[in-house]
Design brief:
Number of strands: 9
Number of domains: 1
Number of helices: 1
CATH architecture: Beta Barrel
Shape: elongated
CATH topology: Porin
Low-confidence stretches: 1-26
Mean pLDDT: 83
Strand content: over 45%
Strand order of the largest sheet: 1-2-3-4-5-6-7-9
Structural class: mainly beta
Order of helices and strands: HEEEEEEEEE
Length: 214
């Protein structure tokens, strides 16, 4: 019995020392992350043109006992913007914008605890194109809101990037990823009857921003 107890004490002490060692692969509890990035979406249209549009992404990753972190990513891309398309005699105006909202579950492998921390991740979720139409009166107050076009699709993808420590719990993060899924229609914000443009099945996203440890 004494020998068993001695072995248990030795194993416990070794595990504690391993977990406390700086830069160890398995730590007692790894911090999560809250990330805000500006993005650029690159996609080839069905007509053969290359589309590049700006966006923003918010990622929240939970704490973990190991190098795998689970979280959620929400993104919003701006595909087109047309303001004051029509002004009536009463002074009302109409503004139309086309957005690309996205939401995905994320699984990130983040094994290193050094100043520069490379990572890889996979994601699965949904994306959609939305035509946002708003009407304003002569005073600039919104009088009507409508979403005449909504085209959703499933998507999945992978990404690789790195977090670079710039302060206590603060990192600069850079990321490149590819997403695959169904085609997305982009409605013409001016002429509703025109055939919509289409984003292809493969899309590329580059991002840079700030990451805070949670």
């Amino acid at each position: 019995m004494g020998a068993v107890l001695a072995v248990l004490i030795m194993v416990t002490s070794a595990s504690a020392a391993f977990g406390q060692r700086r830069g160890s692969f398995l730590e007692p509890r790894r911090a999560g992350a809250f990330e805000l990035k500006g993005t650029a979406l690159l996609a080839e249209m069905k007509a053969g043109d290359l589309m590049v549009h700006p966006g923003i992404e918010l990622t929240c990753l939970g704490r973990s006992a190991g190098p795998l972190h689970k979280g959620v990513r929400i993104g919003l891309g701006m595909l087109d913007r047309s303001g004051s398309l029509a002004v009536s005699e009463s002074g009302t105006s109409e503004r139309r914008r086309t957005f690309l909202p996205e939401v995905s579950g994320v699984l990130r492998l983040d094994p290193f605890r050094s100043r520069i921390r490379p990572f890889v991740e996979g994601e699965l979720g949904m994306a959609a194109t939305i035509l946002d139409v708003r009407t304003f009166d002569s005073m600039g107050d919104r009088t009507n809101y409508d979403v005449p076009n909504f085209d959703p699709t499933l998507q999945y993808g992978w990404a690789a990037g790195a977090r670079i420590r710039i302060g206590n719990g603060a990192f600069m993060t850079v990321r490149y990823g590819e997403r695959f899924g169904g085609q997305l229609d982009i409605p013409n914000p001016i002429e509703a009857g025109d055939a919509p443009a289409q984003i292809g099945n493969e899309r590329y996203v580059m991002g840079m921003g700030l990451s805070l440890a949670l």
